[in-house]
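Session log. Operator J.P. requested a structure for one protein chain; no other inputs attached. Running the standard single-chain path with token output.
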Amino acid sequence: MIARTINQPILEAATQMPVVSLTGPRQSGKTTLVQSVFSDYKYVSLEDPVTRLFAIEDAKGFLESYGHHLIIDEVQYAPKLFSYIQLYVDEKRENGLFILTGSQHFLLLEKITQSLAGRVAIFHLLPFSLDEIKKFPEQAINLEQLIFKGSYPRLYDQGTLPKVFHPAYIQTYLERDVRQISNIGDLTSFQAFMKLCASSTGQLLNMNRMATDLGVSMPTVKRWLSVLEASFIIFLLPPYFRNFRKRIVKSKKLYFLDTGLACFLLNIKSPDQITFHYAKGALFENWVICELLKLQYNRGNQPELYFWQDKTGHELDVLMDINGQLKAMEIKSAKTLRADFFQNFTYFQKVSNIPREDCFLLYGGTENQVRQSGQVVSWDKLSELFSEGS
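Structure written below.
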């Protein structure tokens, strides 16, 4: 087992707040992390039907039985617990009393907002970042392999093959989380929807077209997107529209929170296939977006990531608001630099007055350079762009 980057921020939060919450997709390593970091705490999982029934039917008795300094895994299954945890922490007035985990983002955050606001530090754990993958001895770091394999811990610490892991993950997800979150009956149509989302990676979200392609209603598409978001399968990147001209695009862009799952849904069967695949650029862009999210989440920050696009065709792949300072990034999968890669920077700098030192071209090659329009950064140096305090 490797130490996760997020460990220290979580430990510090437990000395400052009575409750710490950790959400993230299934099998991202939440349980392993909290049991390691809080090794002297009692542990209980609401995945167990008997334990879950106890927590649901007698929340007060459940907490009295287990006491504090307790890890409660998949806590969203017993919503009544939150009110009793609130009463408990208000009475004890101590920090680090409870560690809560959950794999259903919106369901958990809704309960926290209602009952534990001001009493809980909230963290999100995604699968391994590139820096965490590099900690594994003799792990070959190849861009196409990283995109194809994805970042789920089991693929690295247990050596599970992608062709075994990804279909099993999707099948388990469909049969458990999808039905639990939204009681979706037609899982075949929902899986077709997931494949359509994979083919739309990095594109503006067009729910009308999705509904037409699938033969379902717009409300159904909207509900299914919410299910994928709630369970950390996809991430919708919002547009930046605070400044820089009024005529801008306001639709969100769709990305997967793991490129390995996206590749599986696209029927990509090997890393070599990515090199010539029509979605190569979108998958690389998706991988970079995931790394940027992990970079901030692992420091305990809430990422402020956006894209920018106006209605005349000018666009930037990523805008990042870091401590009130805007950073701009273009993402290119090519391994060789071309002059036209910098065109969007040139226009954006005119309308935004953003300095060139805050403009980054991240690409699939290995050179790191300073150009007139901005900094050129190799894909494997992404985490070195921003300081630890960012």
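Operator note: The mean pLDDT is 90.
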